[in-house]
Amino acid sequence: MSTVARLPEADPLYAQPRSERPLYATGMLLDAQDFSDEQTYHRVQLARAMAFLAGGGTLAGLRVTHQAATAGPNAQPEEIRVEPGLAVDRLGRLIELPRPACLRLQRWYDTRNAVDGADTLRQAAYGSLNRFLSARAIADAALPAAVPIPTRAVVADVFLRFVACPRGLTPSFADGPFDALNAVATSRVRDAYELLLLPRAGLDDAYDGLPAAPGAGVIGDPAAAADVRHAALQNAVLAAYAASGRSGNAGQLAPLPEQPNGLDPTAVFIGRVLVPVAAGDPPVRDGSGVLVDNWRRRFIPSASLLAQWIGI
């Protein structure tokens, strides 16, 4: 049984195909591509509805936490842990973590240190860290017993992206050497995920690398009159069909402000991690508490939660 993830581009939805459904007739010869196209049509319709109704972001769960290393018989390594949950990516695909997912922080740090002589970590280490945090994270850090904002830290972001994992093999006609006696093909594809922790170089006062604040540039000033906000909302709907999200525009999905160069543009930002370091070169961890900011991701509250919020 294979569980090797396919490249993101292998998913037909990544190409943002046009909505074309197979049309059958009695006596028509069908092959595997016809059945794949049937699935793709329905997946595209559902995904595009999710993408435009909800947008990319967190539907439920997916809290990011830091777990310190423990000693003793049941010793555990230091981890960045993501709790189970559900997200929607920019193509409208559901990404589900059915159980906690972990990244070993010290191993990640040591690997980054070794790959390029710590150059990436060096560029991702900053002081004056309030400018790279959400307002809620800054307020929470001031509470008693909370992890304080470090004086200097490596800034890294947690992303979640959709991947498809082929699973199971079944006998099939040979493809290639047609005299093969053991021809098999993948019989199932599991919708799965990949968890990424990326150091963030290139941040400054003008660019914090975070998602846009909720409502920014969409519904106008919250203090404005109701008719002004209503007009702003109508204008936002008319302008919402962005060129990079249209069907048939393969490879035209523009990166979001929070996505570093080279990252899959469908990856979903779910949190920011500050790893405290000393003021040295290369940066060395100073042993202080790791701070996690969960609050600048895009949240997609369910209709039931919104109803509770407004009291209906």
Structure in words:
It is a single chain. The protein is of the alpha+beta class. The chain folds into two domains: 8-17 and 30-211 and 266-305, no CATH class; 213-255, no CATH class. Helix content is 21%, strand content 24%. It has six helices and eleven strands. The radius of gyration is 23 Å and the shape is globular. The N and C termini lie far apart (49 Å).
Outline:
With 312 residues, the chain is an alpha+beta fold.
Helical element count? 6
Q: Compute the number of structural domains.
A: 2
Share of residues in helices: 10-25%
State the distance separating the first and last CA atoms.
49 Å
Largest sheet: 5 strands, antiparallel
Give the overall shape: globular
H-E order: HEEEEEEHHEHEEHEEH
Decide which structural class fits the backbone.
Answer: alpha+beta
Give the uncertain stretches in residue-range form: none
**Rg calculated over all Cα atoms:** 23 Å
Feature tags:
312 residues; alpha+beta; 3-stranded antiparallel β-sheet; 6 helices; 24% strand
Task: Describe the protein's topology.
Layout: H1 32-53, E1 57-61, E2 64-67, E3 79-82, E4 85-88, E5 94-97, E6 101-104, H2 105-115, H3 119-123, E7 125-127, H4 135-141, E8 152-171, E9 184-199, H5 226-238, E10 268-276, E11 291-293, H6 303-310
Antiparallel strand pairs: 1-4, 2-3, 3-6, 4-5, 7-8, 8-9, 8-10, 10-11
